[in-house]
Amino acid sequence: LTIYAAASLTEVFRAYDPAQRYSFGGSNTLETQIRNGAPADLFASAAPLNTQRLFRAGIVDKPVTFTANRLTLIVPRSNPAGIASVYDLRRKPVKLVIAAAAVPVGGYTRTVLRKMGLSSVLSKVVSQESDVKAVTGKVALGQADAGFVYATDARPVAGQVTAIRIPAWAQPRVRYEIAVVSKSGNKTAAQAWVKTLLGAKGQAALRNAGFLPLPKAAS
Predict the structure, then answer these.
(1) What is the pLDDT of residue 115?
(2) CB within 8 Å of 102: residues ≥ 6 apart
(3) How many CA atoms lie within 13 A of 102 on its CB side?
(4) Which of 8, 17, 30, 103 could form a cystine bridge with 26, CB 3.0-4.6 A?
């Protein structure tokens, strides 16, 4: 199967089923590629917006929610800006890196800042990246003082970054959806793959990688 999947799923999908062909990236970029006829069998997005738009256009079958996530603020291990909480972003002269607004994690980042009354810190953004891995990489390499990523993306670089918790009340609702591409020549296999992902083995793999259990309302 050729699976187009959000960048934040890179490690977990490769470990869960290395036999498939993957194309990882920002969900918005993958949505555009599939819309333009890219030969994907499945599309796993970090936001319902991307899968639902393709569903309305008749390009994918009905999407299903398969996991959830949360946001965290990461700083380099050395923490040159001395950031101890999200509110320090407003108080200190920081170089902040985030994802572009069209990328799910970029949209979620702006939601967090709005909920915390910190939208003004967007003026401290030095670059807007095309996916969450680019944000993570810049902070891990010390090219920025802080960045907003998924909690699951902070884990693979735990030796290089420190994660700072975002309060539960400020968290956006991060839901991942997967859909079979309508024109896929491997529909039966694609549907079976979704079924196993929603089953005990798939859900255990996601949980072990730090993803959240399926939201109850989504079933």
Answers:
(1) 97
(2) 26, 28
(3) 9
(4) 103
